[in-house]
Amino acid sequence: MNFRAFRILIYLIYFLIATTPERSRLKELAKTDPEKASEIAHKQVKKAFHRVLSVAGVKIETDGLENIPNEPVLFVGNHNSYFDILVTEETVPSGTGFVSKDSLKKIPGLAPWMELIHCLFLNRENVREGLKMIMTGADYLKSGFSMCIFPEGTRSKDGTLGEFKGGSLKMAQKANVPIVPVAITGTHAIFEGNEGLRITPQTVHISFGTPFKISDLPKEKKKFAAEYTKAAIQEMLDNEK
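Above: the chain's sequence. Below: its structure in token form.
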């Protein structure tokens, strides 16, 4: 573990412990004013992520922020690193909830913050729970909270865009909200591309593509919305090379 990784680990432990009273307060606020609670939670999470990215030496270049509609959307991106989540939350002005693997619920102090910003936990082994998650995600979108999903389901080790999992865009279809394709490059080299627990400074690039609704796609493309989205992301990735 190098010094940057050690500093980040210590900071995250401190953040999760020190913000325990704030989490409790926001959980109570969410019962009466969920929008305000979410707004405050996103500000806190953004501050924490900004600190982590700063310590890691990460610089973010962005394109297409003007493509983000002033309404709830489903961000759909490629997945190379844990840092994809930090970079996306840091960049999206209002913040976004994420679809995450359910093992993250086991990290003390983390799950409550994730719930406060409307993250969802996916159990890949339980189809019924997966369908329930889609419906919850659609409800969040209808209630005005943007969501983000990485349909590959796992991090790419070489930057190659993998298969998009079936049903990954269903929550956007059910809520009838726009989908915004997101292309991220450079995050893998921050952590996962290193030997041992090492963090190295990198410049990453995040692009937001043209939004679209599945309901507006031509009939022959509606059944293949995932492939349509994947092609849009691949085109953005190719343009960054």
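The first helix runs from residue 3 to 18.
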